[in-house]
């Protein structure tokens, strides 16, 4: 069913009892052309574009939990394309453009809100670094604005401008950036993929990858063996474990990132604000809760829960930036397990096994990438050829000496 | 993880006194080793879900490097050894 004003009125008049499920509860067939492991945003977007854009038929998405139970439903929903490196910026801008058309594309309200993302700076050196980043964005045709302190004070009066150690001197603003409703992104892509015939199979964990004569022939799952011509991995924080099933050696560590939401407040924070003095970032959800997070816990982790000391540190940073936050109650906190790659950038590539494809290493930033990641991964799987904007994100970049290191932190994942 | 780490030199201390450097199971290749060996050492990680060895430094204490065996799922710390002692024991 297509959603429209008419369908809403019609369903309202029949007591909202006649809405159909958004996707079928599919049972696995014995064989697929393409199997995608992971029913997160990336896996579902890949399935959608594979069938819709590249005409591949007979596709399944296997998800070990329920759809959207991974990081797609755990993130802080920020979408932006204010990256600096030429290997990254065109990719994230491609994603931003897809976001801008996504509601129409999917006929689904993903609640994209281009409220602007502003990154604060606290020193002359940091201002120069942000000017450089802004210029790098302009060079790729992406608008960026440097906001000086006086102007910023008018826009965002409640910040702590006179902090002794981290006075706020200004910020770099991308107006087109903002937030989107994370669950709706997963559901919208799932519904779209389902409409193009994709089997979305929940509660189906991949436990082994079967290979014959050097090619993948299918996967063992908790619902039995399922054969395939091509296997695509989009397992976010569990990439190393799934990769191990095919003896892949990967430049990935799993790290846990926490997020928090407060009680609902009247509208008070109009933008996404990122605190350059640390790594704190905050926005207000449409329900009114303040959504925020900061850095990863620092050590590798597969536990979907965080460390209390990190939670305390996040609060400290938040209150340093916005003193008024100390009066607000936190309702919930949660954590997600993410792939941290050795250069902080993602990997979309073929693997040494010809019919095995890899999508991983999204670190902090994979939600904003969901549309472009799905599109580029589908392009790769369908054509066996890298999409132009994902060219710098290949797996062999480390061996070739072309790491894409936005943070300039070197091969240490917990510093990205 | 367990929020306490027992430093062999300083005793039981909060985890916040320590910083982590990462995987301690890797062995540095010889300078003349192949590009592949160096690539694996610098970039490839086993990343197990379970027990792992890590370098931590007791920065707010004795400043020694330690090797900690930790479970990446339960966050339990199984053993803490002085870094130099660990290297000697393992013939590094
Ligand atoms: C707290 C937090 C805040 C974040 N904030 C942002 C943000 O503001 N902006 C941003 O751009 N990014 C953010 N991110 C990062 C972003 O959420 C991720 O990079 C992105 O969601 C990963 O892609 P995905 O949606 O496909 O992953 P997931 O939703 O995790 O999908 C992977 C799926 O694979 C499944 N799976 C794993 N192993 C198997 C198996 N063996 N068999 C079957 N299925 C399997 C998992 O169950 C999971 O559902 C944040 C992450 C966290 C944790
Ligand atoms: Zn000590």
TrEMBL record, chain A:
Its cofactor is FMN; FAD. One of its GO terms (biological process) is tetrahydrofolate metabolic process. Its main location: cytoplasm. InterPro entries: FAD-dep_OxRdtase, FAD/NAD-bd_sf, Rhodanese-like_dom, SoxB. This is Sarcosine oxidase subunit beta. It is found in: Cytoplasm. GO terms for cellular component: cytoplasm. Pfam families: DAO. It comes from the Bacteria. It catalyses: sarcosine + (6S)-5,6,7,8-tetrahydrofolate + O2 = (6R)-5,10-methylene-5,6,7,8-tetrahydrofolate + glycine + H2O2; sarcosine + O2 + H2O = formaldehyde + glycine + H2O2. Its EC number is 1.5.3.24. Belongs to the SoxB family. Keywords: Cytoplasm, FAD, Flavoprotein, FMN, Nucleotide-binding, Oxidoreductase. It is an enzyme of class 1 (oxidoreductase). GO terms for molecular function: nucleotide binding; sarcosine oxidase activity.
Automatic annotation (TrEMBL), chain B:
The lineage of its organism: Bacteria, Pseudomonadati, Pseudomonadota, Alphaproteobacteria, Hyphomicrobiales. GO terms for molecular function: sarcosine oxidase activity. This is Sarcosine oxidase subunit delta. GO terms for biological process: tetrahydrofolate metabolic process. Pfam families: SoxD (PF04267).
């Amino acid at each position: 069913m297509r959603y429209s004003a008419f369908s809403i009125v019609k369903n309202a008049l029949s007591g909202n009892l006649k809405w159909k499920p958004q996707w079928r509860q599919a049972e696995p067939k014995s064989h697929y052309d393409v199997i995608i492991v992971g029913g997160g945003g990336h896996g579902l977007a890949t399935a959608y574009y594979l069938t819709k854009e590249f005409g591949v038929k007979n596709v399944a998405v296997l998800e070990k939990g329920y759809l959207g139970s991974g990081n797609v439903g755990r993130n802080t929903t920020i979408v932006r394309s204010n990256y600096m490196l030429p290997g990254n910026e065109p990719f994230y801008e491609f994603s931003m453009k897809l976001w801008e058309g996504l509601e129409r594309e999917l006929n689904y309200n993903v609640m994209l809100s281009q409220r602007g993302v502003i990154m604060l700076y606290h020193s002359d050196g940091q201002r120069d670094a942000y000017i450089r980043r802004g210029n790098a964005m302009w060079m790729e045709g992406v608008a960026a604005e440097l906001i000086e302190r006086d102007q910023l004070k008018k826009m965002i009066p409640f910040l702590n401008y006179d902090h002794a150690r981290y006075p706020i001197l200004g910020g770099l603003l991308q107006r087109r950036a903002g937030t989107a409703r994370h669950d709706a992104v997963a559901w919208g892509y799932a519904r779209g993929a389902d409409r193009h015939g994709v089997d979305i199979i929940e509660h189906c964990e991949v436990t082994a990858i079967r290979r014959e004569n050097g090619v993948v022939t299918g996967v063992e799952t908790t619902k039995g063996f399922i054969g395939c011509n091509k296997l695509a991995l989009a397992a976010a924080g569990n990439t190393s474990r799934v990769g191990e099933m095919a003896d892949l050696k990967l430049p990935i560590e799993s790290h846990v990132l926490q997020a928090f939401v407060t009680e609902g407040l009247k509208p008070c924070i109009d933008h996404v604000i990122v605190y350059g003095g640390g790594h704190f970032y905050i926005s207000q959800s449409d329900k009114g809760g303040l959504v925020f997070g900061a850095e990863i816990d620092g050590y590798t982790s597969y536990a979907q829960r965080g460390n209390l000391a990190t939670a305390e540190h996040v609060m400290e940073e938040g209150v340093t930036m916005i003193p008024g936050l100390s009066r607000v109650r936190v309702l919930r906190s949660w954590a997600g397990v993410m792939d941290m790659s050795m250069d902080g950038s993602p990997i979309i590539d073929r693997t040494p096994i010809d019919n095995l494809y890899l999508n991983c290493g999204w670190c902090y930033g994979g939600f904003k990438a969901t549309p472009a990641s799905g599109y580029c991964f589908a392009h790769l799987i369908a054509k066996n050829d890298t999409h132009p904007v994902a060219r710098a994100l290949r797996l062999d970049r480390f061996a070739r000496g072309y790491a894409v290191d936005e943070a300039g932190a070197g091969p240490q994942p917990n510093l990205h | 993880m367990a929020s306490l780490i027992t430093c062999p030199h300083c005793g039981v201390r909060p985890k916040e006194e320590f910083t982590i450097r990462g995987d301690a199971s890797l062995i540095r290749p010889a300078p003349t080793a192949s590009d592949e060996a160096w690539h694996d050492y610098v970039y490839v990680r086993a990343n197990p879900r379970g027990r792992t060895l890590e370098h931590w430094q007791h920065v707010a204490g004795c400043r020694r490097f330690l090797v900690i065996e930790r479970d990446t799922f339960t966050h339990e710390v199984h053993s803490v050894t002085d870094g130099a002692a660990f290297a000697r024991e393992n013939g590094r």
